[in-house]
Prior knowledge:
This protein has 2 domains: 2-200, NAD(P)-binding Rossmann-like Domain (Rossmann fold, 3-Layer(aba) Sandwich); 215-344, no CATH class. The chain has a 10-stranded mixed sheet with strand order 1-2-10-9-8-7-6-3-4-5. 57% of the residues lie in helices and 15% in strands. Helix 11 (219-234) packs antiparallel against helix 12, helix 12 (239-261) crosses helix 13 (263-269) and helix 12 (239-261) packs across helix 17 (333-343). Strand 1 and strand 2 (9-15) form a beta hairpin. It starts with a strand and ends with a helix. The chain has 355 residues and is α/β, with parallel strands linked by helices.
Amino acid sequence: MARIDFGGVIEDVITREEFPLTRAQQVLADETVAILGYGPQGQGQSLNLRDNGIKVIIGQRKGGKGWGDAIHDGWAEGKTLFPAIEEAIERSTIVQYLLSDAGQKEQWPLVKKHLRKGQVLYFSHGFSVVFSAQSGVIPPPDVDVILVAPKGAGRTVRSNFLSGSGINASYAVHQDATGRALERTIALGIAVGSGYLFPTTFEKEVYSDLTGERGALMGAIAGLMKAQYDTLRAMGHSPSEAFNETVEEATQSLYPLVGKNGMDWMFASCSTTAQRGALDWARRFETAVKPLFELLYRDVQAGIETKRVLESCGAPDYREKLQQELDEWKNSEMWKAGSAVRSLRPENWKNNESV
């Protein structure tokens, strides 16, 4: 392991230098990985595993989008693609349980019935195990229960891999029935395309993940952008100006620079007027939203958020209601303006030029 100083706290991380792909391939040489669920994570992780020389099969309900995507990606029905997830489990030594959280609850009785001693039960989210009272997911004592959680969307897991990079991921061992759980976990983490791996627990992963998704990763940033856009529009600014000053400059200019160089660099590199205002108002926003983040974390810990997810996502009309919510965002003035702004980016304009 490499010992890295994270803001004054020394942590152990695993990189491909300490645990190269060749070692992961050796550890997994006699294993067969069954991917249950061909959503974004299932798709990204399975393709990376396959490209890295690991034996992979897919268990996916026939007829849906996931099945079509799997066929398109070259998985062969009856050979590497199976419509009955129990057959995929029986053919495997490692079961990557990558259905949605609601789907994991629904399919768990079938999955548990077909697990056998010595197999690996692999998660990319601590949700079902930590909140087992809600999900019903209580693994049998004779299987390894592990976690590799890429810190990004499944599409990014794949795109970073194809670009020669790797997304960072957390890992944890919840149950070591074979004595090989840790080695198998790290090997799988490297084989799915992780750039580096940092240790966590199932509990810490799900608490931080659910807080992040609802907070700075998506929920809070979407709400913050909407609030600023609406304020600018109410003060007489045009849709294009409001969107450019709220979203376009952030995503196309500032955020990539922050990601590359850090917020301190960004503060130091902007105009003195922007610098002074940003430094002063950052503290005010921190004070305003910190109580909301504390409430969010408490709701996550208490299982309030997971209960809401399972109840809403497991409802028969969930997809219909979800589409209505998504359409509200898509059809709002702000994001219609965004669509128009994106079409004007030089790379998109040139691609749409008539001959």
